[in-house]
């Protein structure tokens, strides 16, 4: 059984990118719900009460990933959403009230994704540092995070926080509470050798609150597999490889050493979870649990024609576009390039079937990040220019991305070629005119001078015309008769 539960934490990481989700019991909007006039710097026209910071962060990450410079007002709006304690709420209509008195509304998911965006963009070290400090302060005793402080840890919230720590240059394994870190929390949510064979290696979102049983959840598994690679939503294709890291801190000696260690481990780890009776084979590590999770996802994708599905009991399963897009990112980070590209191919062909995705900045942005993770251009995504679609939903980027530069260069090159064609045509036309003018002058002289005992008549006529698209043209005509 593959459950997708209507819970707030997993829904946020699923991308606010998914369109139809139920709001879980207990989830409340941040105070100051927006009126009809939304900030011009905000991406999206829908009510941002639950996802304003999330969708803004994804949109900015996407523009940055594609090589564009986001509009300063959009970046500053995001940074200005931070509370005085370092946290972010889902959305604050009046960010001038920096105190955010109701701390129960602080949102680990919004805080973590804002860190990922602002760290990638640069220039906001203080905001990032304060946010990371707040995240460390609300970590649960099991090493994980809940959506709002005080709740039970869930897989998706813990995963997005790991992405934030990595983006900020912090080793997640060193962020602990009572001796437990985030990788410990995630490992405890993996379905092991006592689960049905088809579910082994997958992850639950949370233990069942009554029985403590783990039920596999594909969306949560995607989030965890990405996090266990030591990666956030921004995965650099050149750096992703066999070691499964995104290379965010490749220039840092300590992080590079950890990358090399992960690579050595990955070479010896099995893919699917191997069991000896009720016990897994080998030592359980973040790398082994991540590899088993990736193997579970690969099997699910193969069974589902390269996409994941979602559905509630008694309802028909539907494609889960948001989770499928994030699967591309997770598998690319894990070094599963071939499978990631196959899944991206399905998204290219079917993203138009994603209900209302073009109106959702997080949905469009997640597709951009998926394309980026495998080195594909978002401007030509199955006939859709994702960057242009994103710009229709919020402030257009100031900088020019690689694809636009190429187009510009092509236009400049084309203009230069046109100039040369005109000049060459001008020269050729003038040359033809000069030659024919000489012929007209030379032929009568030749005819007058020629005489002999024999008579031969040669009559030739010719007309030569050369034209070009420039300001110069040349034409010449000549006829001659000579008797030799």
Provide a descriptive summary of the structure in words:
- The chain is mainly α and 484 residues long.
- 44% of the residues lie in helices and 6% in strands.
- The protein has 15 helices and 6 strands.
- Strands 1-2 form a two-stranded antiparallel sheet. It has a two-stranded antiparallel sheet with strand order 3-4. The chain has a two-stranded antiparallel sheet with strand order 5-6.
- A hairpin with a 7-residue loop joins strand 5 and strand 6.
- Helix 4 packs antiparallel against helix 5 and helix 11 (321-333) packs parallel to helix 13.
- The radius of gyration is 32 Å and the shape is globular.
The general outline is globular
Major sheet attributes: 2 strands, antiparallel
Report the helical percentage.
40-55%
Portion in strands: 5-15%
Give the tally of β-strands: 6
* First-to-last CA distance: 104 Å
Spatially, the strands of the biggest sheet line up as 1-2
Average per-residue pLDDT, rounded, comes to 77
The number of helical elements comes to 15
Structural category? mainly alpha
Give a quick precis of the structure.
By secondary structure, this protein is mostly helical. It has helices at residues 8-13, 52-65, 72-79, 108-121, 125-137, 155-167, 182-187, 218-227, 253-268, 286-303, 321-333, 337-350, 361-373, 386-391, 402-449, and strands at 275-276, 279-280, 309-310, 318-319, 457-466, 474-483.
């Amino acid at each position: 059984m593959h459950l997708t539960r209507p819970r707030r934490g997993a829904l946020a990481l699923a991308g606010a990118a998914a369109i139809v989700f139920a709001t879980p019991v207990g989830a409340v909007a941040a105070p100051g719900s927006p009126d009809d006039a939304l900030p011009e710097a905000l991406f999206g026209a829908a009510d941002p009460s639950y996802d304003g910071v999330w969708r803004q962060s994804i949109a900015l990450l996407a523009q940055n990933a594609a090589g564009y410079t986001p509009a300063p007002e959009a970046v500053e709006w995001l940074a200005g959403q931070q509370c005085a304690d370092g946290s972010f709420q889902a959305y604050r209509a009046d960010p001038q009230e920096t105190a955010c008195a109701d701390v129960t509304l602080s949102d680990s998911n919004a805080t973590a994704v804002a860190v990922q965006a602002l760290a990638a963009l640069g220039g906001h070290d203080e905001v990032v540092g304060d946010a990371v400090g707040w995240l460390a302060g609300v970590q649960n005793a099991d090493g994980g995070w809940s959506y709002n402080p005080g709740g039970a840890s869930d897989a998706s919230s813990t995963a997005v926080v790991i992405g934030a720590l990595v983006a900020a240059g912090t080793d997640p394994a060193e962020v602990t509470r009572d001796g437990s870190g985030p990788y410990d929390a995630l490992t405890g949510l993996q379905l092991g050798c006592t689960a049905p064979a088809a579910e082994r290696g997958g992850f639950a979102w949370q233990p069942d609150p009554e029985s403590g049983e783990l039920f596999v959840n594909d969306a949560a598994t995607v989030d965890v597999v990405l996090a266990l690679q030591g990666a956030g939503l921004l995965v650099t294709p050149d750096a992703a490889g066999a070691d499964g890291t995104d290379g965010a801190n490749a220039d840092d000696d300590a992080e590079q050493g950890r990358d090399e260690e992960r690579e050595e481990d990955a070479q010896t780890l099995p893919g699917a979870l191997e069991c000896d009776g009720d016990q897994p084979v080998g030592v359980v590590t973040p790398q082994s649990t991540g590899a088993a999770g990736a193997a579970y996802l690969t099997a699910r994708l193969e069974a589902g024609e390269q996409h994941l599905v979602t559905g509630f009991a008694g309802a028909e399963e539907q494609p889960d576009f948001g989770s499928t897009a994030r699967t591309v990112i997770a598998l690319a980070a894990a070094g599963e390039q071939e499978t990631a590209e196959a899944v991206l191919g399905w998204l290219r062909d079917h993203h138009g079937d994603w209900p209302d995705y073009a109106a959702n900045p997080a949905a469009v942005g997640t597709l951009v990040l998926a394309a980026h993770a495998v080195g594909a251009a978002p401007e030509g995504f199955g006939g859709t220019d994702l960057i242009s679609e994103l710009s229709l939903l919020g402030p257009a980027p100031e900088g020019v991305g690689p694809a636009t530069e190429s187009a510009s260069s092509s236009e400049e090159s084309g203009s230069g070629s046109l100039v040369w064609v005109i000049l060459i045509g001008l020269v050729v036309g003038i040359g033809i005119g000069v030659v024919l003018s000489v012929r007209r002058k030379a032929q009568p002289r030749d005819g007058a001078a020629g005489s002999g005992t024999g008579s031969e008549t040669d009559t030739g006529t010719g007309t030569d015309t050369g034209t070009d698209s420039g300001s110069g043209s040349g034409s010449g005509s000549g006829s001659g008769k000579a008797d030799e």
